[in-house]
């Protein structure tokens, strides 16, 4: 990610959390219900029977860790949350005191883990041209694949909509399904049957993991 683009995205979310605080609107989501529904889809990648390590790219104020620890049976050994907005990380560290969680300022995953997830980081392209934004997305998916031993999951707004906002990116589901099948794994799922105008793709390295 170019320095200028990183600064622009960071400022966009700094303004959001400054205005709304550490809650779903502070990370550009409508409400807690839709935020948790996204987490539910992403976390289908995880085998809940075994303790796991997890990367969360674009962790915001730490909502996914709170959801994991309060609403699921996932056994977390170590959680790494990454974000490019320093104000997000300040809020995350204030909200999450669990010693299993570490928060890092970075636009890419730095540590190896069993699984990696990202929620919503591909949506707000702002005024970035499509070729650059899509290059960023594909590069990020490669980074997630490299740093995940068992699998990774990501989501994106769908092209199957009646109306589009100019500052948002809408990803073509068949394209990303095909890209993941050809480049990462045979075990790819497209989830497009929940109540939001988006989709989620879990990529498993092996069948059943």
Please give a structural write-up:
With about 210 residues, this protein is an alpha/beta fold. The protein has one domain (about 5-205): Vaccinia Virus protein VP39 (Rossmann fold), CATH 3.40.50.150. It is about 35% helix and about 20% strand. It is built from 6 helices and 8 strands, in the order ααβαβαββαββαββ. Strands 1, 2, 3, 4, 5, 6, 7 and 8 form an 8-stranded mixed beta sheet that branches. The model has no long low-confidence stretch (mean pLDDT about 95).
Structural class estimated from helices and strands: alpha/beta
Could you say what the CATH topology is called?
A: Rossmann fold
Count of separate structural domains: 1
Count of helix runs: 6
The quaternary organization reads as single chain
CATH architecture descriptor text: 3-Layer(aba) Sandwich
CATH class: Alpha Beta
- Proportion of residues in β-strands: 15-25%
> Major beta sheet, specifics?
8 strands, mixed
What does the overall shape look like? globular
In short:
The chain has 209 residues and is an alpha/beta fold. It has helices at residues 3-20, 32-42, 63-71, 86-95, 130-146, 173-183; strands at 52-57, 76-83, 101-105, 113-118, 148-158, 170-171, 187-188, 198-204. It has one domain (3-204): Vaccinia Virus protein VP39 (Rossmann fold, 3-Layer(aba) Sandwich).
Lay out the secondary structure.
Blueprint: H1 3-20, H2 32-42, E1 52-57, H3 63-71, E2 76-83, H4 86-95, E3 101-105, E4 113-118, H5 130-146, E5 148-158, E6 170-171, H6 173-183, E7 187-188, E8 198-204
Parallel strand pairs: 1-2, 1-4, 2-3, 4-5, 5-6
Antiparallel strand pairs: 5-8, 7-8
